[in-house]
Specification:
- The chain has helices spanning 3-27, 32-40, 46-71, 76-88, 102-134, 140-168, 173-194, 201-204, 223-242, 246-253, 258-286, 288-308, 317-343, 348-363, 365-376, 391-410, 421-429, 436-448, 452-465, 468-487, and strands spanning 380-384, 387-390.
- It is an all-alpha fold and 495 residues long.
- The chain has a two-stranded antiparallel sheet with strand order 1-2.
- Strand 1 (380-384) and strand 2 (387-390) form a beta hairpin.
- The chain has one domain (3-493): Growth Hormone, Chain: A (Up-down Bundle).
Length: 495
């Protein structure tokens, strides 16, 4: 590919994410917004929420065979196009749920969840294989860090707006339905910009020989890759034993409104915005594994300390937890994705498919086990520090302790030329991005001043200002893309 063609494709990929990822944050079954919808609008309990949170991982179990079958008939580009649409369109039908009976609402929403989630799982694997052919490995950390930062800004705004709308209009099925319709439309706008991207020939055209089913066995002979999959799977299992139930705890135990769930989710987005570029630079400099180690340790320790003491009397510190864990989560997701691609051989599609299936097999058990524990354990476990101790606290503590134990598996992963975690810690202390005073000041203003949003904006504006031009370019590209679509044929039509 020509240099200019590559740059335009990377820019189109960033714009596509600005429309697609916010919608995914509203509709992923394990994310707070859709869980809040199921609890407040449909009346689902912990067991149903646990099953819903496990759905993406259950779908990932069947996607390797489905992906191989599809690649024998279509190109990666065609698979992405079809599954992109199948992920977006079903969510528009949520607006019809108010007209159905309560039983049919549950069935209808279950069908929408399953179809949209399965399509997204297949699309994600094909997209990962395609984008790995497009982005040079030497700039992967920097590019994905900047890309995640820009779409993270828009995700932050969308989650805040959607949560406040839901709260303002009583968390009814009708208002949720229109929010999901808008999200579906935004996803289709993102699909338009995906079609403006150029890819190498091996992505645009079907392989001359159908993929051999035996290629799915190749990742099982790669011990280093399996160790990485084991770590991510164990981390996902223990994390999802507790994390999907955070919104349930906020709504049912702390009696917080849906809007507060949105604000806390937005705080996690602020943490990601403040740290993403730093994580990308660190991973390019020291290697992906040590940065992943640091993010994992930081995430588990902060969450363990915060949720173990959350209750009706002490709960304001949860806001600081969301902010700090949001930054750690952004680094974890960035490094997990980059390390998965870095350790895979040239033919990445089967390795990515098997990796996602193996990690999902373990992760899917997490919310199911967590839901059963919440169902079987007594709700009231006594009183600690003047506030009630609930079964949620026990599940959250077990979840984070398990995450801490799983980090030892990451020590066995080998990455060429990677430094030790100590080098990352030392460098972070001198980087402005990770200055702890910024996080503490921001959290203090959130906790002790009524004008929380103003305080957050004032302290984060210096970090976001550097990216203002790039974010502004998104709107410019939208207008230019619309004009170009009228004048020329879409790249996706040429094959």
């Amino acid at each position: 590919m020509r240099h200019r063609e590559l740059l335009l494709s990377l820019k189109a990929s960033t714009i596509e994410a600005c429309f697609s990822v916010p919608m995914l944050n509203l509709t992923m079954p394990s994310f707070p917004f859709v869980i809040a919808f199921a609890v407040s609008a449909l009346g689902w309990g912990p067991a149903a929420v646990g099953l819903m949170a496990a759905l993406p991982h259950l779908c990932n179990l069947v996607q390797p065979a489905l992906s191989v079958w599809l690649r024998g008939r279509y190109s990666l580009h065609q698979i992405i196009q079809v599954t992109f649409i199948l992920n977006a369109l079903p969510w528009a039908f949520v607006s019809a749920l108010p007209m159905a009976s309560p039983a049919m609402r549950n069935v209808g929403f279950g069908i929408i969840l399953t179809l949209g989630t399965l399509a997204n799982c297949v699309c994600a694997v094909a997209w990962s294989a395609a984008i790995a052919e497009l982005v040079p490995s030497r700039i992967a950390g920097t590019f994905f860090g900047r890309r995640n930062l820009i779409f993270g800004f828009w995700t932050l705004l969308v989650v805040i707006a959607a949560s406040q709308l839901a709260q303002r209009y009583g968390s009814t099925l009708t208002v949720y339905g229109w929010i999901f319709v808008a999200g579906s439309a935004a996803r289709m706008v993102g699909f338009f910009f995906f079609t403006r991207m150029s890819f190498p020939r091996q992505v645009l055209h079907r392989a001359p020989t159908p993929p051999d089913w035996a290629e799915l066995a190749a990742p099982f002979r790669d011990r280093n890759y399996l160790v990485l999959a084991a770590f991510i799977g164990l981390w996902g299992f223990f994390l999802n034993m507790g994390q999907p139930f955070y919104p349930v705890f906020l709504l049912k135990i702390l009696h917080r409104p849906v809007g507060d769930v949105g604000w806390l989710t937005a705080l996690a987005g602020v943490g990601a915005l403040l740290t993403l570029r730093g994580w990308g630079r660190l991973s390019d400099r020291f290697g992906v594994k040590p940065v992943l180690y640091v993010c994992s340790m930081f995430w588990a320790l902060i969450a363990l300390a915060s949720w173990s003491f959350a209750g009706t009397r002490w709960h304001l510190h949860v806001a600081l937890c969301y902010l700090l864990v949001g930054g750690a989560t952004a680094g974890f997701q960035l490094c997990q994705f980059n390390l998965m691609l870095k350790l895979a051989p040239a033919n990445k599609a089967p390795h990515v498919a098997v990796f996602v299936a193996l990690t999902s097999a373990l992760t899917a058990l997490g919310p199911l086990v967590g839901g059963l524990m919440l169902r079987w354990l007594p709700e009231d476990l006594g009183t600690v520090l003047g506030q009630g101790l609930h079964h949620f606290h026990l599940v959250f503590a077990i979840s984070m302790l398990g995450c801490l134990l799983s980090i030892h598996v990451l020590d066995r992963v080998r990455e060429e030329a990677a430094h030790g975690p100590e080098a990352v810690w030392r460098t972070m202390r001198g980087m402005r991005t990770f200055n702890p005073l910024l996080s503490v000041t921001t959290a203090a203003q959130l906790l002790f001043t009524p004008r929380a949003v103003v305080g957050i904006t004032r302290d984060s504006v210096r970090s976001l200002k550097r990216h203002a031009k790039r974010i502004g370019d998104v709107g410019e590209e939208i207008m230019e893309g619309g004009r170009d679509a009228i004048r020329s044929r879409l790249p996706g039509d040429r094959d």
